[in-house]
Specification:
GO terms for molecular function: oxidoreductase activity. By secondary structure, the protein is α/β, with parallel strands linked by helices. The protein contains ten helices and 20 strands.
Length: 463
């Protein structure tokens, strides 16, 4: 494009691509500005595996049915009611139409993976993972004439009254200015700016790992908030999970997540348990463990399992620490050996009848007289060798973002910004007040990306 495009989409992940594809199919000239280099394009979407989808009866790879009310109840449980019900139900209802739309735009699906705790009914898994999805969308977008610039970082959007008049970005060492008719912001949260995290969380945030892309630094988000675009969400709320303590500071992705907590005990550096490891099935509870670990001394935790649980979960990319005795395991993990032995023995003594143990559903196999209790999957840890993993808080994305309405449109001063829309993680706080539900981030991104693309194109075509 030698002239200004009709629409600029800021970001290069799932939500941005859905917006760009919808806008291009509506006849608009679209340019994507992706801050990452091409090999790292796609934001956090590169690390995803599935999206959560309502459906009446079997749909694609999904079996049985998953109703709106059940979906919404699952969301309410993990968010504690901290959600915008209208927007949440919009995302849930629209998800059913998204799966065939995704297939028609190049995304392929596969049956649910082993070790994913029976998600075959609720979550559709991408063939090739998130990278396969991202690559499919880029092929589709480019075939539709969407122009993509990589290493193109947007530095400022100029808001005048109720519209964005121009935006600045850098590319190949030079500054550029565009005046598009419509702008879609899909540039994620601010989690890669650890100074911003520390301002929200305090010094403990310096010990957090960022499991997502290092390019989501919140530059566009901060710029718009500073200009009075309405915000939503709490800066301390985020999608934070417990990940392998050996993960890199940035971009460890899905392969660093640890799914063994339900079959373990989790202790802090004093070898003391601090929460019910069996509270609920893992897809509804894995996202609380990042915050739980963050509240422990030095923001670390340790998973302890024995040999009979080793094959029950999707492992981390790193092998577990192994030892023939608990004392040896404690030594390798830097835990007090006597205290770990006492904690495990106390847990084992509180375990009862384990004949009803069922790893993929709530089984009621619980401890008795133990604080905190373990309410499901409570089996003694007594079969060597013993295994351990260290845990750190891994932040995926933050929930402070741009407030949107049902048209994905942003507001300022209680008025819509006439040519500004937002989609994906940068507006997910409109629905996720706290907590997380597996696969729901991709649902939000897909639904609101499509809405934003259609609305931005309608505005551009009418201007």
């Amino acid at each position: 494009m030698t002239t200004d495009p009709d629409i600029v989409v800021i970001g290069g992940g799932n939500a941005a691509l859905c917006a760009a594809i919808e806008a291009a199919e509506a006849g608009a000239r679209v340019r994507i500005l992706e801050a990452a280099p091409k090999p790292y394009r796609g934001g956090n979407s590169r690390h995803t595996r599935n999206f959560r989808c309502m459906h009446h009866g079997p749909l694609g790879p999904l079996v049985d049915s998953y109703t709106e009310e059940e979906y919404f109840a699952d969301l309410m449980k993990v968010t504690g009611g901290e959600t915008d019900e209208d927007l949440a139900r919009l995302a849930i209802r629209a998800s059913e139409d998204c799966l065939p739309w995704m297939e028609s735009h190049g995304v392929r699906f596969q049956p649910s993976l082993s070790g994913t705790l029976s998600l075959a009914r609720t979550n559709a898994f991408f063939l090739g993972g998130g990278k396969g999805l991202v690559n499919a969308y880029y092929r589709t977008a480019e075939a539709l004439g969407v122009e993509v610039l990589y290493e193109a970082e947007v530095t400022h959007l100029e808001r005048e009254d109720d519209r964005i008049t121009w935006l600045d970005y850098t590319h190949e060492g030079q500054s550029h200015r565009l005046s598009p008719k419509s702008v879609v912001v899909a540039a994620g949260g601010f989690q890669a700016d650890t100074d911003w995290l520390a301002r929200a969380w305090g010094p403990a945030a310096k010990n957090f790992l960022i499991r997502g892309t290092p390019y989501n630094r919140g530059v566009v988000l901060a710029d718009l908030l500073d200009q009075g675009v309405e915000q939503v969400g709490d800066p301390t709320q985020c999608h934070a999970v417990a990940i392998d303590g050996r993960a890199p500071k940035f971009d460890g992705g899905i392969v660093t997540r640890l799914d063994c907590v339900p079959f373990s005990i989790v202790v802090n550096k004093e070898a003391e348990r601090f929460y019910d490891e069996g509270e609920d099935v893992w897809p509804k509870r894995y996202a609380i463990w990042g915050r739980l670990v963050a509240a422990q001394p030095d923001q670390v935790g340790y998973v302890i399992i024995d040999s009979k649980s080793l094959k029950l979960f999707m492992p981390s990319v790193f092998p577990p620490i192994e030892a023939d005795t608990l004392e040896e395991l404690a030594g390798k993990m830097g835990l007090p050996p006597d205290k770990l032995r006492a904690t495990v023995e106390g847990f084992n003594a509180a375990c009862g009848d384990t004949s009803g143990f069922h790893p993929t559903e709530l089984d009621g196999v619980a401890t008795t007289g133990l604080t905190p209790p373990k309410t499901n999957w409570a089996r003694p840890i007594n079969q060597p060798p013993f295994y351990g993993y260290s845990l750190r808080t891994g932040v995926t994305f933050t929930y402070l973002g741009l407030k949107v309405d049902a048209r994905a449109q942003c507001t300022a001063g209680n008025r819509p910004v006439s040519n500004l829309w937002a989609a994906g993680e940068t507006m997910a706080g409109s629905i996720l007040g706290q907590g997380y539900l597996a696969g729901f981030g991709m649902t939000i991104g897909t639904v609101f990306g499509r809405i934003a693309g259609k609305e931005a194109a309608a505005h551009a075509n009418a201007t």
